[in-house]
Design brief:
Elements (H helix, E strand, L loop, with lengths): L1 E5 L5 H9 L8 H7 L12 E6 L2 E15 L2 E13 L12 H4 L5 E3 L5 H9 L26 E3 L2 H7 L2 H10 L5 E6 L4 E11 L2 E9 L2 H6 L1 H8 L2
Length: 229
């Protein structure tokens, strides 16, 4: 008889060996361990759910719970990731979604579903968000966009200049393979969180967060020239 329970940190070695080790050649054990760690270590935090057959883990669903301040209000989010179920137990895989669907005070999102998972989530009542990507080509020439501005990628220098909200975003992402860029002057700044990604042998920067979109738009040539280096 199968059952569902929260994934505890002590389960990680079994979870990694059974489901994660061979999944992504660009991620090592520590990368996965960071993803399955709690952000703050609170008792109410969840890192995912495991499907058990006796004492054997036969399926997992990762959950990344976080808070964001939007328009002055705190909103709770649960980001789904790493949904794996052994073939013999695929018919029981939806059991892993039951506790997630009970998170009435969270916005549940999945940014990278496979086509099969996408179809399942749609049947469960999930709605599509705008999935449009804007591609900005590298700007390789020296730009005057950054006149009278300072640009830095040093984490500690950036951290010291951020607002309370942006500081939390910085801290929440520090354990991941994220990089940071800060364009600033005496009056304002634009804080950027991005990852360097390689897919199909092509490197590119995937931007996760921009604190000042107006400033980014007007100074994007300078920013793109830095990211292209």
């Amino acid at each position: 008889m199968v059952s569902v329970a929260k994934i505890e940190k002590a389960m990680f070695p079994q979870v990694y060996d059974s489901f994660l080790k061979e999944d992504d050649p660009y991620s090592n054990e520590q990368d996965w361990r960071n993803l399955f760690n709690c952000l703050n270590g609170g008792a109410d935090e969840q890192i995912g759910y495991a499907l058990f057959d006796g004492s054997e883990i036969v399926g997992i669903l990762g959950t990344r719970v976080s808070e964001r301040t939007i328009s002055g209000k705190i909103h709770k989010f649960c980001n789904l990731h790493s949904w794996f179920v052994k073939e013999k137990y695929r018919g029981k895989g939806l059991f892993l979604m039951r506790p997630v669907l009970k998170l009435r005070d969270h916005t549940v999102v999945d940014f990278t579903p496979t086509q099969k998972v996408e179809e399942i989530l749609k049947r469960l009542g999930f709605q599509y968000l705008n999935s449009t990507l804007t591609i900005l080509l590298p700007f390789l020439l020296k730009s005057t966009d950054a006149s009278n501005f300072t640009i830095t990628g040093d984490g500690q220098t950036i951290r010291d200049k951020l607002s309370r909200i942006d500081s939390k975003i910085f801290d929440d992402h520090r354990m991941f393979k994220c990089q940071y860029l800060l364009l600033s002057n005496e009056n304002e700044y634009c804080y950027i969180v991005y990852s360097t990604v390689i897919r199909h042998w092509l490197p590119y920067c995937y931007i996760h967060y921009i604190s000042n979109k107006k400033m980014f738009a007007t100074r994007n040539k300078a920013i793109r020239s830095i990211l292209a280096c």
